[in-house]
């Protein structure tokens, strides 16, 4: 449906819009952690003297039978005991929270079966905490349906972490055993040599392989932020400098190609490592009559950067293609200090091969996600004018970010074309108009 909407919008506006569909590739990430009982923490707003400014609120669906899912905007269920009436607006509900503290919840509003409760004191509620009306003793119930949450692993420098080769949930250090977590691609674990660096969660945690055991690879944490770091499921794992022996395309990638080919114009080749990988992709497209699709080689690893000339030569003349500088994973692989140099070399090589480049990862990230822009983001976005395309991430302020990016790139294209400065005439002395009165670029 999304592809259909893009095609329809393109026809209606007369603006061309190509669709790029990414293959996930071998996303090497941390596995699951056990779920813990859900907790609702109500925290009233107070001023600096501790005086109440605004009570805390929660919504609950009052019912006599448990439901498998919660309606949108509802925090939990209030399961009424047999014979209990519905709470009424203005009624006080007496309860003990998860710590055994006596608390009063006031029924602020009742709409159908959804009640809004407010608290003037801090409280913690878990499933099973009971409440009863102060005035009508037969109005009783208990909280249920509070969504479970994952408890992250807390890791500090010097801690041990077992990267387990078997699937299943991990867990914290216990009774002399190290903390453990699984990996979504367990085939890589036996390939890790002693001393191999491991970067976790985009470089927030660094570790080194101490030894290989029957359960997996034992790591020692070598870097975290002060006070330690939290490790959650589905966080990226990088092994800088290690050429992993994995097939170019996963089974899921091959299945997804069948869906992508009739819908998209370009396919993103994630974690391409060498020319052999690129040839495998071209063969997979040929077998599925997808030779018309452009291939975007996503340069995400140090190995891909070192083999970039061979990767390009494997496809040049056989398939429309381009290059994406995926700066997130690439920065972890080559180091943040070298990223600036590496991305310049990729731009030069793509220019020599007459290939388009996509400048990607965290462009205008603060603006896209929070609606505010940091000063370094202006310069970073302006550097994107040297590529043919700039990629933005999703976020609630994506439309505003697109307008801002268009403004920046439109102004910069008179100064820079790809890697070459245009040496445009400067405005000082040539006009009396101050910069804030210069013509706005088209949007």
UniProtKB/TrEMBL annotation:
Ranges for domain Pyruvate kinase barrel: 177-401
Keyword Magnesium: yes
Main EC class the enzyme belongs to: transferase
Entry keyword set: ATP-binding, Glycolysis, Kinase, Magnesium, Metal-binding, Nucleotide-binding, Pyruvate, Transferase
Entry EC number(s): 2.7.1.40
Listed InterPro entries: Pyr_Knase, Pyrv/PenolPyrv_kinase-like_dom, Pyrv_kinase-like_dom_sf, Pyrv_Knase-like_insert_dom_sf, Pyrv_Knase_brl, Pyrv_Knase_insert_dom_sf
Pathway(s) annotated for this protein in UniProt: Carbohydrate degradation; glycolysis; pyruvate from D-glyceraldehyde 3-phosphate: step 5/5
Pfam families, sorted: PK
One GO molecular-function entry: kinase activity
Family label: Belongs to the pyruvate kinase family.
Protein name, as recorded: pyruvate kinase
Organism: Acidithiobacillus ferridurans
């Amino acid at each position: 449906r999304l592809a259909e909407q893009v095609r329809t919008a393109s026809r209606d506006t007369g603006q061309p819009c190509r669709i790029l569909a990414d293959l996930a590739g071998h996303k090497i990430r941390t596995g699951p952690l056990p779920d813990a009982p859900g907790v609702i923490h109500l925290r009233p707003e107070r001023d600096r003297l501790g005086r109440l400014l605004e009570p805390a609120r929660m919504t609950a669906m009052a019912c006599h039978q448990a439901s498998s899912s919660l309606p949108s905007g509802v925090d939990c269920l209030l399961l009424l005991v047999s014979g209990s009436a519905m709470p009424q607006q203005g009624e006080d509900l007496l309860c003990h929270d998860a710590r055994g503290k006596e608390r009063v919840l006031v029924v602020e509003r009742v709409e159908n079966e959804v009640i809004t409760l407010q608290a003037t004191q801090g409280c913690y509620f878990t499933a099973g905490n009971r409440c009863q009306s102060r005035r009508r003793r037969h109005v009783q119930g208990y909280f249920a349906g509070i969504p479970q949450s994952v408890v992250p692993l807390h890791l500090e420098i010097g801690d041990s972490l077992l990267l387990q080769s078997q699937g299943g949930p991990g867990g914290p250090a216990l009774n002399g055993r190290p903390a453990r977590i699984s990996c979504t691609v367990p085939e890589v674990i036996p390939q890790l040599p002693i001393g191999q660096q491991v970067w976790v969660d985009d470089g927030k945690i660094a570790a080194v392989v101490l030894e290989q055991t029957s359960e997996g690879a034992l790591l020692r944490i070598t870097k975290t932020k002060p006070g330690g770091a939290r490790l959650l499921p589905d966080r990226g794992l990088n092994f800088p400098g290690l050429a992993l022996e994995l097939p170019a395309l996963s089974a899921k990638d091959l299945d997804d190609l069948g869906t992508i080919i009739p819908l998209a114009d370009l396919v993103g080749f994630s974690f391409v490592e060498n020319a052999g990988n690129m040839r495998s992709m071209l063969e997979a497209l040929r077998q599925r009559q997808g030779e018309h699709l452009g291939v975007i080689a996503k340069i995400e690893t140090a190995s891909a950067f070192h083999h970039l000339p061979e990767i390009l030569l494997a496809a040049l003349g056989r398939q429309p293609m381009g290059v994406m500088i995926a700066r997130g994973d690439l920065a972890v692989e080559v180091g943040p200090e070298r990223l600036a140099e590496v991305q310049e070399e990729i731009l030069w090589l793509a220019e020599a091969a007459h290939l388009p480049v996509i400048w990607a990862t965290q462009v205008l990230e603060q603006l896209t996600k929070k609606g505010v822009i940091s000063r370094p983001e202006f310069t970073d976005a302006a550097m994107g004018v040297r590529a043919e395309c700039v990629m933005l991430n999703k976020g609630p302020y994506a439309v505003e970010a697109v307008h801002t990016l268009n403004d920046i790139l439109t102004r910069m294209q008179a100064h820079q074309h790809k890697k070459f400065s245009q040496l445009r005439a400067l405005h000082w002395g040539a006009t009396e108009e101050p910069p804030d009165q210069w013509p706005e670029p088209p949007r």
